[in-house]
Description:
Elements: H1 2-13, H2 33-36, E1 46-49, E2 56-61, H3 67-71, H4 78-88, E3 94-109, E4 116-131, H5 134-142, E5 152-153, E6 159-174, E7 179-196, E8 200-207, E9 215-229, H6 232-240, H7 245-260, E10 262-274, E11 279-293, E12 297-310, H8 322-332, E13 335-338, E14 342-345, E15 349-360, E16 377-388, E17 395-407, E18 410-419, E19 425-434, E20 437-444, E21 457-467
Antiparallel strand pairs: 1-3, 1-21, 2-3, 2-21, 3-4, 4-6, 5-8, 6-7, 7-9, 7-10, 8-9, 9-12, 10-11, 11-14, 11-15, 12-13, 15-16, 16-17, 17-18, 18-19, 19-20, 20-21
Helix pairs in contact: 6-7
Amino acid sequence: MRAIIFLCVGLLSFSMFSQNKETLYDFTDLPQSLMLNPGADTNFKYHVGIPFLSQFHANAGLRGASLFDVFADDGRSINEKIETTLNTLTNYDYLTLTQQLEIFNFGWESKKDKNTYFSGGVYQELDVIGYFPKDFAVLAYQGNRDFLNRPFRFSSVSGSGELLMVYHFGFNKKISKRFTFGARAKLYSSMLHLRSARNRGTFTTVETPQGSNIYQHIIGNADVTLRTSGISSLREIESENTADGAKQVVNKLIGRALLGGNLGLGVDVGFTHKIDEQWSVTGSINDFGAVLYTKDVETYRARGNFVFEGFETPIQISGDGDQDFLDELEEAIPLDTLNNSYITMRSLKVNGSIKYSFNQYDNGTCNCALDGQKGEFLDAFGVQLFSQFRPKRPQYAASLFYYKRLFHFLRAKATYTIDDYSYKNIGFLVSTHINKINFYISANNLLEYTNLAKARGASLQLGFNFIM
């Protein structure tokens, strides 16, 4: 059991960040900025992302602890360090994993209306979040001897995960010189999904009137649910143990990705408002939508009450009576397997920013703008805000940023972000534009790369585009 807790702490110590892309947001030199704000103030004639290379995004980080906390060579035993870390973590600490891969991305300016820009494409996304089950981690690691009459709550068990393909198409419209609006429709094709949230009930140990060392272990009002889709059929393939089992799994996932999975609909909306020539405000909402799960669905639900008397907790019992106890537990709190359809909302994301641009260049002597228009600014700074809705509570982030057009072919953006993970998150994005070929790369939490064991996060995104 201690090995399991050690693994949980280790995973939490190398968890993944949310889907905040502070360096890319409102970086309007890149067409990928339209994916974060379909109403971004862009000036492209057309663009084509190099298939499978136009954007790869992955974030790694931690919330609550670090590998250094557990493995530091400071003279303390490993058990002492695990226990200290365990006491530091809370039910609101979590590990998340987010990754995106653009399959292809394209866009073009409308021939009928030069103020309208269309864009579309397909991308794969993985999104996982698991909250640290503090109550039951403490119970499993330390036992219940020092926690009599304390309820251990099943609500601490919460998490979700999804692998899906997203097909999207949107438009960007300059309503006036000062206001740009955009929207994007999305079709989700889910390949895998699981979710356990809003669980209820408690496990409590109390001393009985019979005297010392005689206890009652009470599971009260338990109601724990795990919903899954797309997993049971893959489990059946793996159980066959055939040489082509892995190939069958891949083929099934590809079929689901090609609109053969559970389908859903969503929308992104956004805007850019230029208050004057130099000040601008932006805002966007991403993934306002849901997926309906009807295929390959299994829901596991356990409900009921149970009381066990004895010297040991039920999870630590041993001996000939083990099976009898398990039979009694299953009878009191049966595990039902259901095949009912269900619907799940996507994880809504909200972005906003205010920007001040300055250092306007004279286009008569320097052809620096990508689109050749006059009045471009070489520098800008501002503030960005981000929020993402999660099962227990939203995640927030606030960033200060500075944008610089260094040369005609080189642009950059630096960010300083405060979020759930760190108060010293420095990010940097560089984008090169040589002829019509664009390459960009971005990384976050740069200050922590010197010692990854202490790192509170690491992020990377990069891609290639053909832009006109």
